[in-house]
Design goal:
single chain; about 160 residues; mainly alpha; Rna Polymerase Sigma Factor, Chain: A; Arc Repressor Mutant, subunit A; 2 domains; globular
Length: about 160
């Protein structure tokens, strides 16, 4: 891959990819970091790009989406545990919570892209279903159908152990 191709790809897609990522994380600095990771992957994997399978923009946004999924799957918040912590059950709850988050991340990957976006926008970003309909440019009725379908699929993927 020549430097000219790298520059052309970066100039053509950087702002679009960064805006897409920002819409998912609502933190400009984090969006910039993840966007940088996306373009590193694009440059490293460019020789594997097959234009007969998809367009360049589809391929780049697939990498961006997968990078976001990886971020959510591997994101762990580390806080210092207070010395005067009274109960061990808090630690057990934290371990169970992390296991649930790992299970949820795996279950989210099984959803199609639109359903996954809907779940993330609704439960993580706190948007209402009518706001999601506007954002995704689909009808409110269809968002409700997708929401119900996604919840059923998540419940099935998670099993009875993590009933929603």
């Amino acid at each position: 891959m020549t430097d000219a191709i790298k520059i052309e790809i970066y100039e053509s897609y950087h702002s679009k990819v960064q805006n897409f990522i920002y819409s998912k994380v609502n933190d400009m600095y984090l969006a910039e970091d993840i966007c940088s990771d996306v373009f590193i992957k694009v440059y490293e994997k460019y020789d594997r790009f097959d234009d007969s399978k998809s367009s360049l923009s589809t391929w780049i946004f697939t990498i961006a989406r997968n990078t976001l999924i990886d971020y959510y799957r591997t994101r762990h918040v580390h806080e210092e545990v207070p010395e005067d912590m009274a109960e061990d059950s808090c630690v057990e709850d934290e371990v169970l919570n992390n296991e649930m988050l790992d299970g949820l991340a795996a279950a989210l990957e099984k959803l199609d892209e639109r359903e996954r976006d809907l779940i993330i926008l609704h439960y993580y970003s706190g948007l209402k279903l009518n706001e999601i309909a506007d954002k995704l440019d689909i009808s409110y009725s269809y968002v409700k159908i997708l929401h119900k379908k996604a919840l059923v699929e998540l419940k099935t993927a998670l099993g009875d152990e993590y009933a929603l």
